[in-house]
What we know:
This protein has a two-stranded antiparallel sheet with strand order 1-4. The longest helix has 27 residues, at 205-231. The protein has 13 helices and 4 strands. By secondary structure, the protein is mainly alpha-helical. The protein has helices spanning 3-13, 17-36, 43-59, 65-87, 92-111, 116-119, 130-133, 156-181, 183-200, 205-231, 241-254, 261-285, 294-315; strands at residues 125-126, 142-147, 150-155, 233-234. Helix content is 70%, strand content 5%.
Amino acid sequence: MDWITILSTTIKSAVGVETVLYALAAIGINIHFGYTGLLNFGQAAFMAVAGYGLAVTVTVMGLPFWVGIIVGLVAAAVLALLLGIPTLHLRADYLAIVTIAGAEIIRLVFRSVAFKDIFGGSDGRRGFGTGFQELNPFPPGDYGFNLGPIPLFFAHWQLWVMLVGWVLIAVCCLIVYLVMKSPWGRVLKAIREDEDAVRSLGKNVFSYKMQSLVLGGVIGCLGGFIYGLAYGSVQPDVFGTETTFYLYTMVILGGAARVFGPVIGSMLFWVLLVLLNGTLSEAVAAGVITFIDANQAGALRYVFVGLGLILLLVFRPQGIFGDKREIAIDAR
């Protein structure tokens, strides 16, 4: 098997575009789930409205790139308000159901034939990243180094997206650290533990939950920007419910209510997927594994990752860096 290629692809995936965009969205989920106890299963919708806000602003309305960024951020904040006003009074499990439905409504609206002139239907929108790439300080070419026999090189456009993405991750982690150390953050943690006790102290629990939903949604929507700018397009089916499930997997894997938990979880998640995909594909091609074909190798990797997650939840439910008390949600 070509271990050099497998190792090169795996190591690059730890810091690559997929890790960056999912880490940003997972940081938002960590604010909702880890710190506030909100079971928001609609995080993919925040990514979608940001990506489409940028795409539609640039390609349909013909406005500058930076206006599209502002529109996407405002759209994410408005979505949080629209989603939160009727749902944040619900119990945790009902909140999860409603947010899943809300995210699916958003996806189907973007996919609808009736709005194809605006959102592009199932094909989505493309050709809106020119303004971002014009800011790229790296001349065309490949950048990186050789780690022994392992080549670690990225194209100039990938490196630019990764640089911006990791800076955003650092800024978002700093914001989370500071706000969760503040009195506001301590109220969120108290709501997660027992919102009735917080309410008895005169705090407006609904207001704090709404603020948490807005903050986590706006941070999470940055992942939608990175996706659109990295791949040069947005399609509605990319922002399906499974995307949110991946985000929860990353948060739990790294450790809920830990500043760097979502980032580490995202890195591990993609490293495992890429390593298993490369290993299984090479094993099938070499005839080492004969009970599946090359097309089934990609699906089988999710089986192994799912099995690993089950074992993690059984033997260490708090994740790698987490605390059991951080995932004990008051679902009343």
